[in-house]
Amino acid sequence: MSQRPEAGSTAEGDEEQRLRSALRHLQAEAGVLERLVYKHRNQHRGAAYFQYLLKVRRDLKLLLGAGLAEVLNAVFPVLACRKPANTILVPTKQTKKKPGANHSHHERLLGVARLLSQMAEPVMKAAIQITFLLARSFFIDLSTAVLSLLARIRVLIQQMLVDVVSLFNKVTDLTDRKQAVKISIGGVQAFREYYPSMNDACAILECVWLKDKFVLHEKMKESCQETQVEDKRSCGPESSIQYETLALVSEAFLWTPLPYL
Length: 261
Fold this sequence. Notes:
Blueprint (H helix, E strand, L loop, with lengths): L2 H42 L3 H18 L2 H12 L25 H14 L1 H16 L4 H36 L3 E7 L2 E7 L6 E10 L2 E10 L2 H10 L16 H4 L7
Helix pairs in contact: 1-2, 1-3, 1-6, 2-5, 3-4, 4-6, 5-6
């Protein structure tokens, strides 16, 4: 029994390292692409392949601006049971640097998964246009560098999509259960229970390999079914708690003066 939590924590640790490593490599590739676009924008800005490169650069900026590292810092402690699950469901505070930061980490993780699924098509179209240049022996050095760069970006995007989908499903399954949080104030300890919403429906993501890429599918399921059944059982007639009804005491008896001893 003790080997299962260790195996689960090891798998989560490997997934965290893989995601962080892919994010660092993607930042490096985005820097290389930014440099190539800046260097050749005057000569190639009217070409079709360069327009697709601009779309790839735009998607990379959106992905890196989504704050995936911050989301990972908030999600993995929850999966490791070091923080309560409700911390990733609360919207982040708005600041001057982040005026539109009003989404929870759970919603931001869903947005990252959707963005990763949409980034594959511009990368493939840009690679197709670059192969046309190689077939005509135009700009061989530039075409080879850009094609290898797009290949690395595509691999990183697809791997990150699979890992983010797996991470999102784990978080969704965890937040669908009731949680107990230990609160300590002034030496007094108390436990507070958090229950998932009774009416909200949660999304379950799935990656399906279609032709040459992973396609994201979203499925909606009713939330809190297990919690509702458990609450009904605890409050049902089969509960072990027994109640006793006290007889009513008349007001005349309460106001009757007692004799002095």
